[in-house]
Amino acid sequence: MPKPPEACTTMAEVREGVDALDRELVALLATRFGYMRAAARIKPTREAVRDEERKASVIAAAVAEAEAQGLPGDVVADIWERLVEGSIAYEFTEWDRIRR
């Protein structure tokens, strides 16, 4: 179990914590993409996959949460833009795969 950030005194400890957190983030992304597969299965039309209003809402919520935790909102907005666009692309691929 890695040390919390505030308890780290060496770069090895920092790197251990970052590596462990990256594994957790990938596991969370796997779950998020599972929801994209579910959305692809549920949405009745291919056109329904892209929802710009929902995209804006998801990014705004992430930015608000980041800023509430003292993180830079612009950085989080950039990350979530890529995450949401990647999720949409994945959902399109899954929508097409399911309906072949």
Label this structure with key terms:
about 100 residues, mainly alpha, Chorismate Mutase Domain, subunit A
Description:
- This protein is mostly helical.
- It is 75% helix and 0% strand.
- The mean pLDDT is 98.
Low-confidence stretches: none
Q: Please give the radius of gyration in angstroms.
A: 17 Å
Count of strand segments: 0
State the helicity in percent bands: over 70%
CATH class group: Mainly Alpha
The tally of structural domains comes to 1
CATH architecture: Up-down Bundle
CATH superfamily: Chorismate mutase
Proportion of residues in extended strands = under 5%
Q: Please report the number of helical segments.
A: 3
Question: Could you tell me the mean pLDDT?
Answer: 98
Question: Can you summarize the main beta sheet?
Answer: none
End-to-end separation: 45 Å
Annotated CATH topology = Chorismate Mutase Domain, subunit A
Shape designation = elongated
N to C succession of SSEs: HHH
Structural class: mainly alpha
Protein name: chorismate mutase
InterPro entries: Chorismate_II_sf, Chorismate_mutase-related, CM_dom_sf, CM_II_prokaryot, Isochorismate_pyruvate-lyase
GO molecular function, one term: chorismate mutase activity
Domain Chorismate mutase: 5-95
